[in-house]
């Protein structure tokens, strides 16, 4: 399915995804976590094929409780890797909508993330799938799956979120 | 002293309480380690659950050299150098899978699961010059113990079980956490850090760093789990040096032998949903209690020299990449054929701490990279491994023993390093 850029529901979904990208690059994690519905899963799987995240080992498989603990860890100052986290810029583009209704948009995209730490740039490519819950009182992310190109190969521990 | 180290001086780089910083940073020392340690020691390559059937294989490295670990049709484990005998291409390019054999992509020389050269296309060009029997894939000696598979280039190496020595007792205890089921690798985290392999080797027996580096994890878990890892002032939490470079660091003495249960430990409330489901499915109370006591693993880190640890509830594997880069695999294990939802809970516990986005591993990696950078400052300045020398005693079993926050395990590893690196050979 291609993308209908004049569809306001898709425009809202893309606007939310770009807003999320900025919050992650600026490491405003407390604002970031409020973009998610309480039921939302945030997943970075290892297995490139799996949809059964519960039965698989993942890099991240967060429900609301884990996501809030993760954010606390990133901001409270006890984690040496979070304190020394790489700076990041990310571009999210190549949007394609899989499902569009008045209450939900399922939208795929590409993410190119460049990180910088200690005189070194690293590149991380990923395919993203967002489930965006549309609502009059504010759109939210109902699920996000980040499939890194190198998910089943070594991934460096860099102290930031995808 | 010059910067060039000769075999005769390797012994001088390590003493009972310190090692020189250049052990982390000198490319010449690294090259010698690959030759004298990773080419001569037993090196861990696989767990048998990773290659469950005839033809199942995985690829990895022994030292810097690519290998295939494969189960053949007779059920034997083979470790094959991943290098075609013709022009040197790798014959397998995927991390794991199942195959009938391995075919080189370049000129299609094909090899059986035991490494025999089976076929050469257009063989008339080799008539009278190449006998296939003379060109198998190179095979490393391969032996296993309790499902753990090691390989070595060294035909003269002692039998694996002799090399493991007293580590075998702790391996037996480690695998009690699968409660009578076979152990199975149920997921692998892989990451790299920019630091020398020995920094990771040391860390597995370093109880001292835990409450500092992993404070963000400690504050995120339930109080029972945090208490379980609160060993800083517990005199029963000790590290034993087991010989041949191996050591065991016991963080949770009550779980060191899961067969021993005095009945006083309360099952963690976080696992109540598992207890309820197991009860509903008819598991008896002692079985359920045993499974719940083993959810966090075995209570200790068994560190075997040079590249694998059986660490609480997972395998920790190190693969040297270069003098200043190391790959780490954290391999979660579960009960093969055991309750799926219990294995799933084990995955969630593993994800919480381990891997590139875990609440623990990234903080370890940050500390290790800082060691690599800092230790370039005056590479002859010592790295201290003397913590607890003042209170180290020999246990009834004959193991040098000190507190789990002490550095007896590191001293044992460096003693083995010194022994192997000091061997004169015909380079």
What does this structure look like?
- The complex is a heterodimer of chains A (162) and B (427).
- Chain A is of the alpha+beta class.
- Helices cover 25% and strands 41% of the residues of chain A.
- Chain A is built from four helices and six strands, in the order H-H-E-E-H-H-E-E-E-E.
- The mean pLDDT of chain A is 96.
- Chain B folds into two domains: 106 residues, Rieske Iron-sulfur Protein (3-layer Sandwich); 255 residues, Naphthalene 1,2-dioxygenase Alpha Subunit, Chain A, domain 1, CATH 3.90.380.
- In chain B, the strands form four sheets. A nine-stranded antiparallel beta sheet of chain B has the order 13-19-18-17-16-15-14-22-21, with helices on both faces. Chain B has a seven-stranded antiparallel beta sheet with strand order 3-12-11-6-5-4-7, with no helix packed on it.
- Chains A and B meet through strand 2, helix 3 and helix 4 of A and strand 13, helix 8, helix 12 and helix 13 of B.
CATH uppermost class of the largest domain in chain B: Alpha Beta
Q: What radius of gyration of chain A results from the CA coordinates?
A: 16 Å
CATH architecture of chain A: Roll
Oligomer: heterodimer
User: How many DSSP helices of chain A?
Assistant: 4
Low-confidence stretches of chain B: none
| Widest sheet: strand ordering of chain B | 13-19-18-17-16-15-14-22-21
Q: Work out the strand percent of chain A.
A: 35-45%
């Amino acid at each position: 399915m291609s993308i209908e850029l004049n569809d306001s529901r898709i425009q809202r979904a893309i606007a939310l995804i770009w807003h999320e990208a900025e919050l992650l690059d600026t490491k405003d994690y407390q604002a970031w976590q409020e973009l998610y519905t309480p039921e939302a899963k945030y997943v970075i799987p290892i297995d490139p094929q799996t949809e059964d995240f519960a039965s698989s080992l993942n890099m991240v498989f967060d429900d609301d409780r884990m996501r809030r603990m993760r954010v606390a860890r990133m901001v409270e100052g006890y984690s040496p890797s979070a304190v020394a986290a790489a700076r990041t810029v990310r571009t999210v583009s190549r949007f394609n909508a899989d499902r569009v209704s008045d209450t939900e948009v399922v939208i795929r995209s590409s993410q190119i993330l460049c990180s910088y730490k200690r005189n070194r740039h690293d590149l991380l490519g990923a395919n993203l799938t967002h489930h965006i819950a549309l609502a009059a009182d504010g759109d939210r992310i109902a699920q996000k799956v980040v499939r890194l190109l190198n998910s089943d190969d070594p991934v460096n521990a860099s102290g930031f979120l995808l | 002293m010059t910067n060039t180290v000769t075999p005769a001086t390797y012994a001088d780089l390590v003493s009972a309480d310190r090692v020189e910083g250049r052990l982390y940073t000198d490319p010449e020392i690294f090259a010698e380690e690959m030759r004298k340690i990773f080419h001569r020691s037993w090196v861990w390559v696989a767990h048998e659950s990773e290659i469950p059937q005839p033809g199942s294989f995985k690829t990895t490295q022994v030292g810097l050299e690519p290998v295939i670990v494969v189960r053949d049709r007779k059920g034997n484990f083979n470790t094959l150098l991943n290098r075609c005998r013709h022009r040197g291409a790798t014959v397998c390019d995927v991390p794991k899978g199942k195959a009938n054999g391995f075919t080189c992509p370049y000129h299609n020389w094909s090899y059986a699961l035991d490494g025999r050269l089976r076929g050469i296309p257009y063989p008339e060009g080799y008539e009278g010059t190449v006998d296939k029997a003379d060109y198998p894939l190179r095979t490393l000696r391969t032996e296993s113990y309790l499902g753990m598979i090691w390989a070595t280039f060294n035909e003269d190496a002692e039998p694996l079980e002799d090399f493991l020595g007293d580590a075998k007792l702790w391996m037996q205890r480690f695998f009690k956490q699968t409660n009578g089921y076979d152990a199975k690798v149920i997921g692998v985290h892989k990451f790299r850090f920019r630091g020398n392999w020995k920094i990771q080797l040391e860390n597995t027996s370093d109880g001292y760093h835990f409450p500092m580096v992993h404070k963000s994890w400690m504050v995120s878990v339930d109080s029972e789990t945090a208490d379980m890892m609160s060993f800083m002032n517990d005199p029963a939490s000790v590290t034993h040096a087991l010989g041949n470079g191996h050591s065991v660091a016991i963080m949770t003495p009550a779980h060191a032998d899961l067969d021993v249960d005095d009945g006083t430990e309360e099952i963690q409330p976080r696992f109540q949903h598992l207890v309820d489901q197991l009860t509903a499915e008819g598991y008896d109370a002692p079985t359920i209690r045993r499974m719940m006591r083993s959810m966090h693993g075995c209570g200790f880190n068994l560190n075997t020299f040079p590249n694998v640890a059986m660490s609480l509830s997972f395998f920790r594997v190190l693969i040297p990449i270069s003098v200043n880069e190391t790959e780490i695999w954290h391999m979660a294990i579960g009960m093969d054929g055991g309750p799926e939802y219990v294995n799933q809970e084990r995955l969630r516990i593993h994800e919480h701490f381990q891997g590139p986005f875990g609440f623990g591993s990234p903080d370890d990696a940050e500390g290790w990279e800082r060691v690599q950078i800092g230790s370039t400052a005056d590479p002859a300045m010592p790295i201290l491994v003397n913590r607890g020398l003042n209170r180290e005693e020999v246990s009834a079993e004959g193991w040098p023993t000190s507190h789990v926050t002490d550095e007896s395990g590191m001293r044992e590893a460096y003693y083995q390093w010194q022994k192997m690196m000091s061997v004169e050979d015909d380079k």
